[in-house]
Amino acid sequence: MSKRLENRRKFIRTSLAGPVALTLSARQFPYHASAAMPPSGQTAGMARGEKRLRFSAIGLNHDHIFGQVAAVLGGGGHFVSYYAEEADLAASFGKRFPAARFARSRQEILEDSSIQLVLSAAIPDERGPLGIEVMRHGKDFMSDKPGLTTLAQLAEVRRAQSETRRIYSIFYGERFENRATVRAGELVKAGAIGAVVQTIGLGPHRMHPEDRPPWFFDRQRFGGILCDIASHQFDQFLFFTGSDRAQIVASQVGNVHHRQYPEFEDFGDVMVSGNGGTGYIRVDWFSPDGLNTWGDGRLTILGTEGYIEIRKNIDIAGRPGESHLFLVDRKETRYIDCRSVTLPYGRQLVDDVVNRTETAMSQEHCFLATELALKAQQSARKLPARTQG
Description:
- By secondary structure, the protein is an alpha/beta fold.
- It has helices at about 5-15, 45-50, 65-75, 85-95, 105-110, 125-135, 150-165, 175, 180-190, 220, 225-230, 230-240, 345-355, 365-380; strands at about 20-25, 55-60, 75-85, 100, 115-120, 140-145, 170, 195-205, 245-255, 265-275, 275-285, 300-305, 305-310, 325-330, 335, 380.
- It folds into 2 domains: about 5-35 and about 175-345, Dihydrodipicolinate Reductase, domain 2, CATH 3.30.360.10; about 45-170 and about 350-360, Rossmann fold (3-Layer(aba) Sandwich).
- It is built from 14 helices and 16 strands.
- Strand 10 (about 265-275) and strand 11 form a beta hairpin.
- The protein is globular, with a radius of gyration of 21 Å.
- The N and C termini lie far apart (about 60 Å).
């Protein structure tokens, strides 16, 4: 037996041994939490209190900015300042991060030579132009998803990134902030399910219109449902199949139920094919109020020797919490506890800013995931509205 194969098998045995793996039988046993889950974004860097770079935030229009800041803080960042045009957003944000100062303008941040990284969860169609401005001021940029809303923006950002050699990172939180998805990446890399054949990514969301800002319903501003939500699933498709080339096979979108918002899209799905595997994606805004979370997000990774299913936000069979991972191979079915898995993205991104490396995510992967989402959106067939009853 080769040394490489033996090491791989040893890793898989270790990963699935002891209390972190439970063999499933016909009767499911109750799940009991035995340890507190570390806060989102906590890493070894946060525990050591290291401050390895200075960063700021511009644009606070989506609550994802809290996860973005937590990730960089956990990776060793020192949060210096923030700016938003909306006074209410700035005031609320400042209460969460009182150590950072409110900047008088975005220019104050852009022209501060000590700032190395800028985060943004601005309105989606503003993120690309802001990222270009940030990079041309000699700083790296981390955007909430979607990082861009048009192919024209993508071309401009690619050109600016190539000219400045700065980092343009997009915060694909469904992978970077989900411990089960991080664990699945380790298992797939170790060969736990053989060669990956296909990914199936489901991204359902709950929508309460009264809680949403006007831009949420304007397709020109949010980019469309495949551009927006499905960017997560395209990122995971590329990551788990190892594809660096891919094309859209078919896509469709529609506003099938919310006709009071004519520019909105509440459903979309895609078939995609890459040089490392195939994928299917479905995203929607139909999570029912009876579900105890905003969406039963799922990822299934089919391999030649087994498959992994991730229930990202909830196990409807009864286990509490999030990040549930099930692995089925030629021998048995296991539930894998992912509570102790470290989230590496924040530390890796800080490493990349400091060392000029690509450990968190390659620049081409970042752009290709966005390109696929935008092309799927552009070519999507329009679905008709549905009537109730």
